[in-house]
């Protein structure tokens, strides 16, 4: 079995990415088969539990309050609403619910307590629970773990260099520190990024260096193709070609052999044949449901039809790791510390972000 390495260099990764296509595909498929059942795909449902109104300036995101997009903002959902959605997701083959809140970072208080209750509720439905809530402190990560959280998502987005061309309101190190805080618990790490934001192939390799040299490597890595939303700074980016997507998936599979590589945003732009090529290249997870936070996604029935065509089946929950135990709020060992961590705000000027913000002002 090929070993998991934590010392990949950018040059080595570039060499893999740029191999002749068929060789790359064959090598990735070989690594994939050594570590995973090639006919099993993990299915996650992404649920936006709090939408829009975000203070950050991520250039790809329609939820940033400073840009003018036509998404509908929502306050935090109730625990009952989340439970109903989770049951629906379970009935259509999802093993995991990933709850996303458009927050810069988690703040102790009523809303976080409500999220902890959502985690407890979904874990008791025997589904894997993942959250993506922004930056978290060690104490907050421990409280999530105690509630029964299975995974925490915090994407690196791109290489450290290109990240600065997309986001100015927080730093790359904050992302790594959040992953580090999650690693102090038993919660698994989900971290990946987006291609098609105007980055170079070197930046893609740079992101894979950052992810693959984490020790342990993330248990899951979403590879998103940018969905260019009108009103965001990246609205004019051209769609990612399927060839780039397959190369990125295959390279991720080779440098992170144990990781579940997830096809995430941008699947609506791919044909079934294109997605099949991604599965052959080592993708073994998808997001299901007709929406990915705020952008469109294939219908769940279409996905199940695709699975039938390909002879694939959804992965059962807790296949890779045992189900965490849920500790009720009344028995918690951890209390809200009300910390005020100093997450950075580099605030450098990104011209296209400024232009999108200025345009939004004229439209409001
Ligand atoms: S990606 Fe997350 S942090 Fe960035 S603007 Fe969107 S919701 Fe906010």
From TrEMBL:
Coiled coil location: none
Cofactor note: Binds 1 [2Fe-2S] cluster. The cluster is coordinated with 3 cysteines and 1 arginine. Binds 1 [4Fe-4S] cluster. The cluster is coordinated with 3 cysteines and an exchangeable S-adenosyl-L-methionine.
Signal peptide: none
GO MF annotation list: 2 iron, 2 sulfur cluster binding; 4 iron, 4 sulfur cluster binding; biotin synthase activity; iron ion binding
Alphabetized UniProt keyword annotations: 2Fe-2S, 4Fe-4S, Biotin biosynthesis, Iron, Iron-sulfur, Metal-binding, S-adenosyl-L-methionine, Transferase
Catalytic function, reaction form: (4R,5S)-dethiobiotin + (sulfur carrier)-SH + 2 reduced [2Fe-2S]-[ferredoxin] + 2 S-adenosyl-L-methionine = (sulfur carrier)-H + biotin + 2 5'-deoxyadenosine + 2 L-methionine + 2 oxidized [2Fe-2S]-[ferredoxin]
InterPro entries attached to this UniProt entry: Aldolase_TIM (IPR013785), BATS_dom (IPR010722), Biotin_synth/BioAB (IPR002684), Biotin_synthase (IPR024177), Elp3/MiaA/NifB-like_rSAM (IPR006638), rSAM (IPR007197), rSAM_sf (IPR058240)
EC number annotated for this UniProt entry: 2.8.1.6
Binding-site residues for [2Fe-2S] cluster, renumbered to this chain: 98, 130, 190, 262
SMART domains to which the protein is assigned, alphabetical: BATS (SM00876), Elp3 (SM00729)
BP-aspect Gene Ontology terms: biotin biosynthetic process
Subunit structure: Homodimer.
PANTHER family, per the entry: BIOTIN SYNTHASE (PTHR22976), BIOTIN SYNTHASE, MITOCHONDRIAL (PTHR22976:SF2)
Family (UniProt): Belongs to the radical SAM superfamily. Biotin synthase family.
Protein name: Biotin synthase
Organism: Allotamlana fucoidanivorans
Higher taxonomy: Bacteria, Pseudomonadati, Bacteroidota, Flavobacteriia, Flavobacteriales
Gene name as annotated: bioB
């Amino acid at each position: 079995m090929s070993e998991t390495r934590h010392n990949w260099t950018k040059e080595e990764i570039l060499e893999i990415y740029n191999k002749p296509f068929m060789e790359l595909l064959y090598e990735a498929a070989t690594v994939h088969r050594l570590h995973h059942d090639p006919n099993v795909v993990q299915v996650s449902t992404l649920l936006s539990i709090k939408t829009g109104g975000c203070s950050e300036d991520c250039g790809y995101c329609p939820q940033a309050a400073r840009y003018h997009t036509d998404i509908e903002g929502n306050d935090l959902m109730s625990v009952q609403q989340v439970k109903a959605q989770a049951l629906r997701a379970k009935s259509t083959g999802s093993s995991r619910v990933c709850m996303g809140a458009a927050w810069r970072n988690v703040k102790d208080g009523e809303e976080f307590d409500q999220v902890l209750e959502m985690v407890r509720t979904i874990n008791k439905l025997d589904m894997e629970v993942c959250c993506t809530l922004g930056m978290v402190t060690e104490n907050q990560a421990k409280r999530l773990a105690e509630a029964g959280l299975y995974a925490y998502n915090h994407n690196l987005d791109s290489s450290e260099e290109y990240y600065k061309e997309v986001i100015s309101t927080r730093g790359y190190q904050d992302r790594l520190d959040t992953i580090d805080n999650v690693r102090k618990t038993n919660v698994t790490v989900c971290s990946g990024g987006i291609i098609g934001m105007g980055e170079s192939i070197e930046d893609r390799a740079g992101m894979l260096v950052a992810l693959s040299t984490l020790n342990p490597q993330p248990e899951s890595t979403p590879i998103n193709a940018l969905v260019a939303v009108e009103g965001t700074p990246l609205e004019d980016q051209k769609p990612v070609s399927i060839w780039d997507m397959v190369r990125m998936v295959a390279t991720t599979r080779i440098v992170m052999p144990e990781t579940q590589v997830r096809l995430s945003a941008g699947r609506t732009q791919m044909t079934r044949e294109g997605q099949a090529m991604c599965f052959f290249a080592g993708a073994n997870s998808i997001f299901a449901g007709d929406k990915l936070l705020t952008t469109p996604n294939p219908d769940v029935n279409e996905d199940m039809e695709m699975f039938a065509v390909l002879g694939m089946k959804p992965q059962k929950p807790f296949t890779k790791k045992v189900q965490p135990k849920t500790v009720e709020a009344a028995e918690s060992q951890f209390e809200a510390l009300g910390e005020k961590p100093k997450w950075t705000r580099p605030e450098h000027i990104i011209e296209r972000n400024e232009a999108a913000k200025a345009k939004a002002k004229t439209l409001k």
